[in-house]
Amino acid sequence: MDVQSPSIRLLVDDDANRNALAELLEQRYDVLTDGPDLDGDLYLVDDFSFPTYRDRLESIKAETEPSFVPVVLVRREETHVDLDLTQGSEDGDRPLIDEVISAPVRKAVLYRRLSNLLVRRRQFNRLEEQNERLDRFASVVSHDLRNPIQVAQGRLDLVEPEISPPEREHVEVARESLDRMNSLIDDVLALAREGETVDDPVCVSLETTAMNAWTVVETPDAKLSVSAGTGAIVADPDRLATVFENLFRNAIEHGGADVTVDVGTTETGFYVADDGSGIPSDERDDVKERGYSRNGGGTGLGLDIVNTIVDAHGWSLAIGESESGGARFDVSGVEWCR
């Protein structure tokens, strides 16, 4: 047997049924029937043995969250299946039984069902590995890069009084470069964090979130207008706030310190519009790209962060022109709280 083959743990107490299933599965998989540890890439249990193994399967599912561990139930036609076992809970918990196959088992059907579940398991495993790499990367960015930047900023503070005024401009250029590096670190960390899917969304007030986000953005003379009765949507509160913060910064960065920003709703979502100079139609796709900055002074990651958060929620982002000729960002596909 190829050691790389997926392993199927057979939880079938009847010797004849277990041997028949094992003979069928051994043509393609590594079949596990012995041993005290109930390990395996997929668990196959029959209706007769299910009561014996139910508690252990529930523990395995709970212990391996958020990984996907498929459980397949083989049942006789006259056996009743509790539908709650095949459906997830309202809290987002996955079902205990992922697939039900009727006996007598047909080889083609069995192979197809198991193959689909094992593909899903591999996809979950790859996603977990990617998230672990992102976490390690974020840790390096947060600690190993910030420390030398802080050292350089401290040294600039020490030597600046000793530098003659004509040479001070070099210090300012160096300080601006370090500030830009800090901004890049913040944005890269945000991308690493926001790229994950939204697992536990709640009802979030658009008006409150937008108003709070406005307070953390530098807005010397800018104005914010939020349409009354904007309602609430199902979202991650922190990530939704990040969407507004980045869109507000983008409006001020390109529209000027006295820009006016409007937040309102549509039938399918919400929008953020401003009365600035707008975004040329031939650049609207480019501004979503990572690292693209229209004025050359930004990090080019702000709208990428917005787009990443929108995707994580399953929404869509469209860029257009506001009624005053400025930029307008429409987020659609949201779920409203009723």
From TrEMBL:
GO MF, one example: phosphorelay sensor kinase activity
Signal peptide: none
Transmembrane domains' residue ranges: none
InterPro entries: HATPase_C_sf (IPR036890), HATPase_dom (IPR003594), His_kinase_dom (IPR005467), HisK_dim/P_dom (IPR003661), HisK_dim/P_sf (IPR036097), Sensor_HK_Regulatory (IPR050736), Sig_transdc_His_kin-like_C (IPR004358)
One Pfam match: HisKA
Catalytic activity annotation: ATP + protein L-histidine = ADP + protein N-phospho-L-histidine
Name of the protein in question: histidine kinase
